[in-house]
Design goal:
alpha/beta; 9% strand; 10 helices; elongated; 48% helix; 182 residues; four-stranded parallel sheet; 4 strands
Length: 182
Amino acid sequence: MTAIEAVVFDVGNVLIEWSPRYLYRKLFPGDEVAMEHFLAQVCTAEWNAAQDAGRPFARAVAELSARHPEHAPLIAAFDERWEEMVPGAHDGTVALVRELDERGWPLYALTNFSREKFPLVVRRFDVFGRFDGIVVSGEIGLIKPDPAIFHHLLDRFALRPEACVFIDDAEANVATARALGM
């Protein structure tokens, strides 16, 4: 068995809370059904994943608004009021990062995140200063669970997969990490 040499964290819903529902509950007050329909049919998870893969928000909003002009202001809010989707950090995970850092563990982050929005959370949460390296999907055009983004992380920081612990909230991402030996 190989000794652990580094810990790799996901960001969204591991280090910080993130959900469009925090914003859209304000925009659909008292109407969860309409909000869920909007998020399932208009500003979908797949649409958001394209921003995490590098598509600029301006283009994404323009294209989606052209297809759904009746929802243009709600679509624009996904970009303009994005920070309202992040109510805070997961204190327990942040405390773990701090403890590991203070004990000298090499720490990395591997996240599906828009290159435009990631700087907003870096400015807001000081925990990101504790990482030795961060790979943001929107900056490199690769997205988890694609093994290529994991290879990018491993190659960029000269990490051996069998010597890394990977922490993520999505089973597909964990499955890829396991398949690669993490």
